[in-house]
Every structure is written in C-alpha cells, then in structure tokens.
Fold this sequence. Notes:
The longest helix is centred in the middle third of the chain and has 22 residues. The chain is of the alpha/beta class and 205 residues long. The chain has ten helices and eight strands. The protein has a six-stranded parallel sheet, with helices on both faces. Strands 2-3 form a two-stranded antiparallel ribbon.
Amino acid sequence: MDSIIFDLDGTIWDPIDTVLEAWNSRVKEHDQITKELTRTDFEGTMGLQMDDISKKLFPYLTEEVRGQVITECLNTEQGYLKKRGGTLFPNVEDVLSKLSKKYELYIVSNCQDGYIESFYAFHNLENYFLDFENPGRTGLSKGENINLIIERNNLSNPIYIGDTEGDLNAARYAGIPFIYAKYGFGQVSEYDEVIEKFDELLNLF
Length: 205
C-alpha cells in the first residue's frame, strides 16, 4: 500500500450542523418551501451527488426552482464553512500527521467545487493531503474521480476509506480495497476492513 484516499463527510468530519444553518438561512426566503431542513434530512443525503441531494430534499419543487435554491444554498454554505468549519472526528489531525509520514494522502468526495477548499481553510489540514477531487469540478462519479486521483498521482496500491454504500461502490469501481468508517453516516453491504473510530487507522496501517 502506498496511499490512502479519504471520503470527507462522515469519514473525516461531520459538517451537518454548519451546513444546516447555512441552508435554512436561505430556504426560508422561498415561499414554496414550508418547513426547515433537519439534521435527519441531511444525514439521509450523505454520499449522494448534488443533483440527487436536491431531488431528495425538495422533490416538490420544479427543476428550475430547485436549481435556484440549491445554488443559493451552496454559495451560502461555503461562506459558513470557511468561518465555522465542521466537527472533526476525534484525533483526526494527529492520525493524519502520523499517516502522512508513511503514505500519500488524498480526498475524493461527492461535493461541489470549493467545498474541500472550505474544509481546508477552516481546519488547516491541507498540508497533509497531496491532491483532491470532486464531481463539482470534474462532473464525474466518485469512482471515476478516484481513478483520476490514481492516474494523476501515479498511485500503485491505494485504498479508499468511506462510510456509505456509495463509497463502497466507488472503491469497487476503481478496483481498490475499501475500509468502512462505521462511525459515519451510512451502512454498507461489505468491506475489506472496518474501523469503529478514526484513530483505529493507526492499528491497521
């Protein structure tokens, strides 16, 4: 193994409370949206691409209105995340620091362009990662983005760490081992290794 590719939400951090506040500050401006979003709403969207998230959260809106709402929410979200960040899982920086001395570290997340940069900006963890990718920048699926990271950085034996079935499928698509972050937001049908908390990575690697 020469490298570790991480999912972000539910694997490295929990951004939901900040994202929820940002989105609710905008949705209340739209008369067609009659209730505030909840943490449970967002937990059910983890791992999905933005178009699927918008359909799941606002199935009753027209495609045009839904697109407008999502654009407003995402623009607001980035400002909130840069100022407030999210909640890092315990011992994340210590673990990343130790792992980065032995392996190359990367992030592939199903998020919009600028989201990972906002994560970096608040939590100052950018130095541990050599590259990242997301569909907001490439328009590709998570599996395709994993392959892009592998090809771009000439990786020979990477693994992928995530917390959802989508993460599992992406790792299988890329043909690399999948480590299940059981403490995250999702459940998976299979995995190659499992961790109950982030710092258990040091026991595996």
